[in-house]
Amino acid sequence: MKEIRKKEIIGDLFMSGEIILWSLFPLLLVNSLHILPPIFFAGASNIVAGCIILLSLAVFRRSSLYFPKKAIPPAIIGASLVLLIFFPLVFISGQHIPAGDTAILLQMEVFFSFLIFGIFGLETIHLKRLIGAVIILLGTTTILFQGFSGELSKWNIILIGATAIAPLANYYQKQAALLVSPLLYTGYRSFIGGIILLSGSLLFEVSPKEVTLSHHALLLIVINGILAFGISKWFWLESIRRIGVIKAISYGAATPACTLIFAFLFFHETVTIQQVIGLIAVIIGVPLIMTPVKIHTFVGMSVSGDGIGKKMGFPTLNLRTEKHPPKGVFTVQVQINKKSYRGIMHSGPRPTLTKKEHRTEIHLFDFSQDVKKETKVEVEIIKKIRNIRSFRNRDALKKQIIKDVAKAKTE
Q1: Statement: the pTM of the whole predicted model exceeds 0.85
Q2: CATH class held by domain 297-410
Q3: In the chain, what is the straight-line distance between the N-terminal and C-terminal CA atoms, in Å?
């Protein structure tokens, strides 16, 4: 249990750093207006970030730049969604919207995260967090409709469209970050994606002869590349490896406050009533979203099983409990003799084996010991993987168990 708490604390610290650095992005974006074409700015900033990260890994850390094949599919999907859709839409719209408005509207990502992840069951959604997301949605609406005047800005709509893409991109980026170093992933994503964006800009957005790189423009590119696209995104990926995507995005809802403070202190940007309403909504919504959700725990005593799991290559720990845990297949954290282990639990009947009685069985990862009968076992349910299903035979069941275990190990 302590390992999970420690992991979450580290993830929260990375998110705190990400919030501060990412809050600078809307300010840099607005200040690039009339200086650099938006896609050109995005591409150049990403190339700077990628070069610095990859050179740092190779020269200072002397790390291998090898990218595992298993990480390539989710990396390509996640990077494509971010670089080819999210960033272009944000850069194009963000140059026409005040920095404070941009920071607040980007929080629509929270709402879309709850909506998309809830529909597809990618993450668990709880009522208090849902209420928090709705409050943030209402706050951003004041910006979208310019104080409920009914006037819609096309740039606001484009920016919100970008936030609808971000949650799905973050999901795939999380899968990639579990298979490869987040820093290495960020480096490749930024460098390769930056080249694609810059090439697209020079082909369709602006002629190379029309690009003037003044000292001010170069400074914006370098600062944005190092802080907002480099270190900030590294912190983001380190964070989502340790905490859920929804929690990380929700935690980042504090970003607008930092942006508004920086905009006021360094750029003398006045704060509007719409921004105040939006910020208040964020301040109220974030604590609700971050409210700890009660974790389902129970205690069982080890008993003898029928050995079917062991024959299939997945030995299980069988438990007797006072009350049956919820039905389904879950990722769990188990404590036996004061030692903690990660595993996957089946709770309920076993229809494929024509066994109707409720059984609580846990397959522990990296565990090969024999547990004595009547040993006390403490179980913490982390996340539900799927419902109980009937398969046509044991081979089909085994294939599904392999998938379940692989998925549980990435949670």
Answers
A1: no
A2: mainly beta
A3: 15
